[in-house]
Amino acid sequence: MPPIPASPLAPGSQQKSGPGKKRVVNYDSDSDSSEAASPAKPKSQAPRANGLSSETPNGFSASSPSRKRSKVQAKNGSGKDKDGEKRLKEADRLWETRRELPFYQGRKTVLEEILANETTIILGETGCGKSTQLPQLLRRNALSLDHYKRAPKIAITQPRRLPAIALATRVSAEMGVAVGEEVGYTVRFEDSTSKATGVRFMTEGVLMRELANNSREASTSEQQGLNLLLQYDVVVIDEAHERTLNTDFLCGALKTIQRIRKGLAGKNGNGAGSSGKGKGKEAVTKLKIVVMSATLDPSKFVRFFETERPALIVKGRMYDVTTRHLLEPAEDFIETAAKQVMQIHCSGDGEGDVLVFMPGAEEIETCADTLRRASKDLPDSSDKLAILPLYAQLAPAAQAKIFSKPAENTRRVVIATNIAETSITIPGVSYVVDTGFKKEKEYIYRSSGALEHLKLKSVSKAAAWQRTGRAGRERAGHCYRLFTEAAFGDLIDFDAPEIQRCDLAAAVLQLIAMGQNPFEFEYIDDPGRESTLGLIPVLAAFQTLSGLEAISGPTTITPLGRRMLHFPLDPSHARILLSSFTHSCPSEIIDILSLVVSGPVWIDRSSERDATAAARQKFLAREGDHLTNMNVFRAYLAIKDDKSESPAKWAKENFVNTKTLQAAIRVRDQLRELVRREGVDPALSCGGDKDSVGRCLLSGLYMNTAVVQSDGTYRQTTGSLQVKIHPSSVLMSKKVPAILYDELTITTAMYARNVSQFEQSWLTDLPPFKQAAKANGST
DNA sequence: GAGCACTGC
Questions:
Q1: Which residue is nearest to nucleotide B6 (CA to C1')?
Q2: Where in the numbering of this chain does the Helicase C-terminal domain appear (predicted)?
């Protein structure tokens, strides 16, 4: 049976003309859809002579990779050696499946649209091949149509690291070249690219950093300070529907860059984008933007980029998924989920693994226990069940089980958080059980600092369809929604973009570094207007950054702010690191910050809390959690170094989270290198003078401070909230005069987490307090 | 006296 394209609800997909209108370009008129979508039936017909597939001046062609090699490949020696031959053979093999991809079928229209327009919006369903084929299409064929005088340089952004690396690897394989030559990737900690790289996959964060660190202040109304990304002819924003913080900021910045480059290219007489052949600097060329997204309502992007053409839609390769809803609301969604899994398993019709979506780790473990017990009652004749929890905090080895082959006669049941919605694709799934819940961090802004809490929320319609689609990636599947159809109808259509949900300080600093005024910036969705989180987020970010002395105006970044951007840290953490240079304690601060940004230091299982607390005492620093955690980190590093004891065993005995410490080691290495580049010795230590560490922490966390009251409780210094020290802190039940903390969470009480003590008098040395004192004195 | 989804530089 040929796969049937799934028809997940695509809000607004049946739209009329005008913005938001879409045109389906999935198949050329001469190819029939069932043929195009069937991987089992390769077409032997040669590519059409449509100007795209014939041989081109530089040797690129749409024929198999080994038959035609590019100049780039030849120059790099690919194909000359054994590895090269192997790669070309593999590329030939991949070629067969490539040309069956829906994207390949519609490539002519896509290329024409991109070449004819400044900005193109492509909606591609899962499996259509857009992310792998688009760069090759542009790189190979743009030249043949006389649009560029050289193969265009392309950047493609991804929200996450893994896809960026995987796509670069895949596209390299398809082109028969080694990763890092013609095609490469740049993500944090890893850069595979070289001068020969024409297609660069990267995370959105890398491109944001590049823009922020290589721009100057806006000097004129034309905003010439902005880095114009002249090394790229085309920038592709992939997975734009996810609307990450960076997606939104990048879209805004790219639109401005495009406008400036258009003006400059017009001035020096460069039309579509030829490179200057004359001596001196390369002439400014126009920038093409391609926005790629899942099949959702494109009207926001169409409107934002003011594209004159409607979005293109490329059909995907999804199988049909039936969806069922409950007739009555579930009383206990964990129990209902377990029952549903057993029913799927025992009804006996159909193969395939089951994927259950749960909001969090605790719910997952409860459900897993229930299922393990139930599976013991299965008759011997029945297939077995393998219950596999999956969430981010899980040890890597347990996570890896998802990808190992299941035992004979065993059905796997993966119980996951929304990590399985986008980040991890589980093979073999044909049943999805969706509780309809997720957890999300919510920030509440106060002028006295942010409060946060994790909230149980219903998913959006779009997310529910995304979960449903996870059942139809390999064969037709089924989705069981553990809520009623009416409840589904009540769900919001889309999740609010991240820009309306989180702390904007880091992004706003980067924006100001680009010479852009955050109050006048063109946002796809205004972060202020629709936010219900108290203070207007941009203003809150502006105040935070002013307090940290990172900025001195809406478009003015201070030298300190510029230096803060040299580090992959939030502004407050970057401020702490810079303070350590003057307080002679970069060694301590680097270790502390590496831990703070890497995750929980301690394994926190409720059944072992006393033992964890006892272990913590072994590393106790009376100053608080920051130095206590640093002591643990250093003990771990020493044990790894000295090799007399197993670090894993040591960590287990001391209830220490090795996942966090391993991550911290990478961050630490990177920070040490960056500090070295600032001309500071990262090993410089304050020795026994721990006050220096406290003063540094206070410079970035002065908003997160509280002082003890006569009744033993703590009250915020910048606000009036009464806060408690979290019971996991070494300072719990110790009465200290003043505390600073990493975060304030509301759970059963207002809890400060990761707490250290400090001396109140230090506050008056800080700029925000000095200014306040001055203002008071003058009136 | 505890209740933590997921990314990224």
A1: A419
A2: 340-515
